[in-house]
Amino acid sequence: MELEKNYNAKDTENKWYNYWQENGLFAPKEDRSQKPFTIVIPPPNVTGILHMGHVLNNTLQDVAIRYHRMKGRPTLWIPGTDHAGIATQNRVEKDLKKEGKSRYDIGREALVKRIWDWKKEKGSLIIEQLKQLGCSCDWSRERFTMDKELSHAVKKVFIHLYEKDLIYKGKYIINWCPRCETALANDEVEYTDQKGKLWHIKYPFEDGSGYIVIATTRPETMLGDVAVAVNPSDQRHKEYIGKNVILPVMNKPIPIIADDYVDKEFGTGCVKITPAHDPNDFEVGIRHDLKQLLVMDQNGKINENGPAHLQGLDRFEARKKIIEQLTEENLLEKVEDHDNSVGHCYRCDTVIEPYLSDQWFVRMKPLSHRAIKVVEDGEVRFVPERWTKVYMHWMNNIRDWCISRQIWWGHRIPAYYCSNCQGVQVAMDTPAECPVCHCKEFSQDEDVLDTWFSSWLWPFSTLGWPQKTADLEYFLPTSVLITGYDIIYLWVARMIMATLEFENKIPFDTVFLNGLVRDKQGRKMSKQLGNSPDPIDIIDKYGADALRFSMIFNTPKGQDSYYSDEIVEIGRNFCNKIWNAFRFIVMNIENIDGLPGNLHFDLADKWIYARLNQVTKEVDEHYKNLRFNDATQELMHFIWDEYCSWYVEMAKEKFYNEKDSEILLTTKYVLLDVMQQAMRLLHPVMPFISEEIFQLIKQIFPIEDQACIIATFPVIQPEMIDNQVLSTMAVLQETITVIRNLRKQINISPALNVDIHIKLANDTQHQLFLEYDGYVKKLAKVGKITMGVDLEKPASSIVAVAGDIQIYLPLQGLIDIEAEKTKLEKQKDKLEAELKVIHGKLSNDNFINNAKPEVIAKEKEKEEEVATKLNTVLYVIESLG
How far apart are the C-alpha atoms of 734 and 737, rounded to whole Å? Predict the structure, then answer.
């Protein structure tokens, strides 16, 4: 067996991913008598490219899928992409702009065709990148939210909800993006705190008797003011109720009204009412039957309802002109700095404009009741559990969902208007005839549905709904949804509502919400900050296994992840450690023919099997309970620290010194058996290197499974966990470690054998060391061991403790004691001087008050490190007498 000196991640990953696909190993096995394990992928946008958030989320999903596949359950991971209405149309419109055209120049049909062409050419990029990451989805079931079948499902749902009066059309204040020219749902608006201004404007009384002052953060909307409101209980302004004021800039009278909505404590206690440009003012306007006056068009420019000199100006340019005019007319009393939470479009970051518009809505309250109950009853649980409160708060305060979007790419609303009487019919296709006037001509609603309207059907539409398919019956409810906590409202809650409404089932029983991926400074990764690396570059450099392992290893369950290149090196180094250990094994067993007829286990063999079974139990529990970070910590400790650093080292001694062929055959067997079982345990997180080594072992070791991906997950053998063996090995390991540390303290050459004295606590320990002192001698490079319960400390020796055992290393003859003392005294003086400087810094108020926290922390770390070194030097000086 020829193995490359260095592990070749790229070739290995390509080879095994192709093998898995070609052999259909991602598809669920056909055994419908068993309960399946199913995940639906959070569909990435068709415009998307892989980012670090995708890496974390999809690795978590793949770990769960691979684990349950190995546990023997029919396992299905349904992949797909989202048509991403606004984002995709924006992408194609940018290309159009380069041609000097807009969507209106080419028309709806041509634009939609262009987007489909773009999707066919470039829309599969993120799918190919997920394959590079190692995602074991059943690609034969890949779905797209605008597939014919899914589009059919969308229409069915719309009609069903409309007929139940749960979908309606109305004029409401919505979030409007002037850049994308479309409405946005509340959950699609991202708020950021910004430094703004609060302008205090004088509104003169119509009778000339004075003025009142209005405070506003959006003076451009005053053009649409139709009233001023005060709180009826506010004694300062009670006498003004019923009077008129002159609206500045517009120069027209508007009334002063009374409404409890007004907060007496904010600003002056007088509020401008603009029903067409503020959601709260809209409600006030309804109560007082006020006119709804739109003063901006869909591009955020002042329309014909504004004064002539401002018409056509952008809203923020108009703001400047209005402030200038108010200043000139002495109507601006003062301007204050004001911290404001400003809503931005989640797609293009444009400031959102509250805007009065005809839109389609879903009544969410009636749908929310059962979705609340299934969580209260524990049918659906959130992991981590703290997200349950967040979910319940949102559901208990749920508002109607604006589902219409003023774009052309997406599911067009299946509402048809009679050309004669304008009556509306909601139907799967264009109606044949108007039931009121019998007209046969109709026009379809121009708007499309919010992208999330198709996504909330994902758990069942991907399984064939509304057809009663065998897959729908078998795989729904799915098992676990693994997604980011940032879409708990946009997607998770809505899927629960929709699946209960249309299938009378929960969509999944567990929602595992992973955190965000941040840079090492704690900032959210973004293109704007330039702190978001390309995962494909990382995979090309380190390998997918290294990236997957590192992300899971460094991300506690449900917490945010902090990425840096140093973190990926953990996974890369682990891959190399595994490969090098396996290479060493292969090189040393090639001359040991066959496998043993009977196994002859020694202490080391029994110990590694005991630990393997303990680890199998722990890792199985971790995977089952979504504690993937804990699983990686456990596996790294076992494979690196115990198997490679201890057992392989013990085996090495046998290879070099043992003559008994049965012992050598047993050692070969144990090395290969424990390695292949460890690869099974590791496979869900590091699928490629585990498959490579599993397949190589299979050539020389009896394994029936076709491949690691579908191999049986290791089953614990309780009888192999021998506590006496574990405690004996623990004593020996601690003793060996202590002797190695003593050697390091005085820089004894690794090639030199030393004599040691061991003072034992009891006769049981004495017997243990008599039986197993060979391990100590071989692994700690010890020549003669003197031991006993009543042992005295030898002259000129250094001592260390392993539990209740004292270990002495005599130095006479090993080193020049006087020369060593002189060297150590110099080292002591240097360390004391260094410590004095550090203490001076840390006791200096000027340094503490002005230095960055990370600089202070680093200085404290240095203080601890130097103090530890000094204590060690002082101890050795004392030991030397």
Answer: 5
